[in-house]
Amino acid sequence: MKRILFTGVGRRVELIQAFRRAALVLKKEVAIFGADLDETAPALVYCDSIRKVAAMGNEQYIQNLLNICSNDHIDLLIPTIDTDLLALSENKEKFEAIGTKVMISSPEMVHICRNKNNTYRFFSDCGLCAPLPVNDWNEYKNGYPAFIKPKDGSSSINAFKIANIEELKMYAGQIRSYIIQPFIEGKEYTIDIFCDWDGTPISIVPRERIKVRAGEVLKTRIVMDEAMIDEAKRICSLLRPCGPITVQLIRDLHTNTNFYIEINPRFGGGAPLSMKAGAKSAEMILKLLDGEKVAYCTNIADGAVYSRFDQSVCVFEGETQIKGVIFDLDDTVYSEKEYIRSGFRAVAMFLGNERYADKLWSFFEAKKPAIDELLRQQNRKSDKDAVLNVYRYHQPSIHLYDGVAEMLKELRNRGYKIGIITDGRPDGQNNKITALGLKALVDDIIITDELGGPQFRKPCDISFRILQSRWKLSPSEIVYVGDNPTKDFQAPRQLGMKSIWFRNRDGLYGNDTCLDLKYITDITQVKDRLVK
Question: What is the pTM of this model?
Fold first, then answer.
């Protein structure tokens, strides 16, 4: 499993979702960690684990991140906001020394991007047009309207269109360090670029900024303009950026000239829209992280229009009366290790030697592929398909955890709706459900694969929506109980349901951590949480 940490995650819900989709498409296991100063940042709800960090200007910020990366064994750190780019770039080697790659360009490149004077000189060196910056309002002579903004600004903060010298003087007095440029009238574009570790472009997607709010695009049109793509390649050949960058330009309404104004060495807020159009940046990152080669992306939906909207998520649950409880199955209401032992006994009987069950268990405890190891030792590799079928379809000898049956009965007697949502092959999961006698103890059971295949497994939210609809309850009236902090809680939390983490010390995920979830250490404590 690869572990990815996003810093300053804020409102980057679409970006997190893009990585979720990429992991699903590539069938890779990914754990997403979100770091933010603000614990109410909405994108944190879409992360597997939350890490609160110091302010980016705090001298302890980098050490704070280093500690997180070390403790959580982070494979890749991806910054999403301008204010920590330079600090991360300058300390990149410290992260690499503890095994964490940082998707950030060199300090020299970050200096070019973060200082608008440097950006202008760079565009000029590339042979590209850029509006000339002036650093003192007294020296500005290039006519009106003009544009004033901070030298190292972002998100259009303190960026103003100026109609005359009186306005220029006023705004210049309000901005600490600024540049002034002639105002270019025309269409605005962003070019989303993604490069490999060495700065070779893998995808280039220009898009028109049709509607913008506070510097972030609300509506955009993909425009695969050959001139912009060629100019973007020229920029990359000199900058050699690492990972994502966005380039902004204005095509002059009167001369049709492209005037380049800004470079951001990170994912732009609208970058997920280019991904939806075919720029598979998230997939490329997961492949690069595994050392795979990736080809230049050409299949982009030219002309596609995307419009964005706001959506609320519940970041703190609050108090409400619970009326429905959904349980996970494996390692939540029974021991999955008991099922594994049961399967090993069935395999041993099939192979004609009861002692093989202990051998299989020893391989499992050593974190080896148990069946493969045994068949290799016994020179019976040709039996693998038959052995796997025996394991997957055997009638298991398993039991509910102590007190679970009584707890489920009492909760139903008190009027709670009780459901189970479980992933896995339907035949095997149904055999478990039958062996545990669960159909008589709960109202509804959903095996996600029966909805249409593995793509409906958690964290897909379809099964949770189905139970919510059947029970006619609001999300806040439902609580979900599971043991796996990596995948169990994403969907219910994003829907607004409450969550209880069964921190099963004897389970397969007993050593995982999820600091932002309430947890119990005995599954029967669910009743204590609900029945007052």
Answer: 0.77
Q: Where are the alpha helices (DSSP H) in 176-270?
A: 226-239
State whether 329 and 356 are in the same domain: no
CATH assignment at residue 145? 3.30.1490.20
Which tens digit of pLDDT belongs to each residue from 328-379?
A: 999 999 999 999 999 999 999 999 999 999 999 999 999 999 999 999 999 9
Amino acid letter for position 285:
I
Closest CA to 179 of 106, 123, 114: 114
Looking at the structure, do residues 387 and 406 belong to the same domain, yes or no? no
End position of a domain, from candidates 346, 362, 393: 393
Question: Average pLDDT in the 323-332 region?
Answer: 97
- Maximum distance among all alpha carbons in the chain? 94
- Cα–Cα distance measured from residue 133 to residue 117, given in angstroms and rounded to the nearest whole number: 7
Domain annotation covers residue 313: no
Count of beta carbons in the 10 Å neighbourhood of residue 29: 11
**Token pair of 516 as six digits:** 């932002």
Sheet of 101-102, strands arranged across: 49-52, 30-36, 2-7, 76-79, 101-102
Instruction: Say how many Å lie between the first and final Cα of the chain, rounded.
Output: 40
Q: Does 442 score more than 60 pLDDT?
A: yes
Any idea which residue has 């000029």 for tokens? 124
Residues 6 or more apart whose Cβ sits within 8 Å of residue 416:
322, 323, 324, 325, 530
The span from the CA of 263 to the CA of 504, in Å, is 48
Length of the chain: 532
With a cut of 90, say whether residue 49 has pLDDT above it: no
Beta-bridged to residue 250, according to DSSP, are: 188, 259
Find all residues with CB under 8 Å of 113, minimum gap 6, and list them.
Answer: 85, 105, 119, 245, 263, 264, 265
Respond yes or no on whether the N-terminal peptide bond of residue 145 is cis (omega within 30° of 0).
Answer: yes
Helices then strands (H, E): number in the chain?
19, 20
Chain-centroid distance, C-alpha 319:
28
Per-residue pLDDT at 513? 60
Whether pLDDT at 283 is above 70: yes
Of all residues in the chain, the percent with pLDDT exceeding 90 is 73
Name the phi and psi angles at 122, rounded to 5. -65, -45
Q: Which of 493, 462, 509 is nearest to 16 (CA)?
A: 493
Q: List the domain range (segments joined by +) for residue 177.
A: 132-182
The pLDDT, as a whole number, for residue 445 is 98
* pLDDT of residue 213 exceeding 70: yes
Per-position DSSP letters for 431-446, written without gaps between them: HHHHHHTGGGT-SEEE
d(CA 461, CA 313): 14
Statement to judge: residues 22 and 64 lie in one domain: yes
